[in-house]
Design brief:
213 residues, alpha/beta
Length: 213
């Protein structure tokens, strides 16, 4: 079993978002070259792309996800995160198209049917709603274990995305994350990006990397 530990470098999410916006304001998608507004940068950070921001279309294409569905899921998650919600509202409109196509995320996700699979993400990923037992037995741990300590959402998701990108399809990893937001952030990100959450009992999360490219 491989065990990897990351230094505890707790940074407030609001500060992370400010730094990301300052760094990438007015930049372009690293894939298609389309100009990114501040709302686009926030979406990229939420998806773990703050090292090389991409527009939602390219992000969905890279993840083999339906753009409309992923956008609605992302909007729903953003509404549940106070730091992202505040940053979204304060995003600089002078760097957006008129009207900004991404602002519809909030309006669209509020219209989701209550039975939508993602509409219950926030309740499902709360401590009381998490899977009580891991399908992977505790005495048969996954071959890869990563201890993220108290890394916050932005840094945790960025590192998790980088790690999974380097592993083969279908690989099971165990994530240890003590950040209070992890019970919400990790399950939501796993669903948005097409991986599989096998089990969760904070601060331990087992997930399987998706098998498609």
């Amino acid at each position: 079993m491989e065990f990897h530990s990351f230094p505890m470098n707790k940074v407030l999410e609001s500060r992370q978002l400010e730094e990301a916006l300052a760094r990438w304001a007015g930049s372009s998608c690293s894939d298609c070259g389309a100009r990114l507004c501040d709302h686009g940068v926030l979406c990229a950070v939420a998806l773990g792309l703050k090292d090389r921001p991409r527009c939602l279309s390219c992000a969905a294409n890279g993840l083999n996800r339906d753009l409309s569905t992923m956008s609605q899921h992302l909007g729903r998650w953003l509404l549940g995160k106070d730091c992202y919600k505040k940053a979204w509202i304060l995003a600089d409109s002078t760097r957006c198209e008129v009207p900004c196509s991404l602002v519809g995320l909030f309006a669209g996700c509020l219209e989701l049917d209550s039975e939508d699979s993602f509409a219950n993400d926030l309740s499902d990923s709360s401590p009381g709603g998490m899977v009580p037992k891991f399908p992977v037995a505790q005495d048969d741990s996954p071959p890869h274990v990563y201890d993220f300590g108290d890394l916050g959402c932005g840094d945790l998701i960025l590192e998790l995305r980088r790690i999974l990108r380097e592993l083969g399809p279908g690989v099971v990893v165990r994530v240890l994350a003590t950040d209070p937001g992890a019970p919400q952030d990790i399950p939501a990100w796993v669903r948005m990006t097409g991986h599989t959450l096998l089990g969760a009992a904070h601060p331990v999360y087992d997930l399987r990397k998706r098998t498609d490219p």
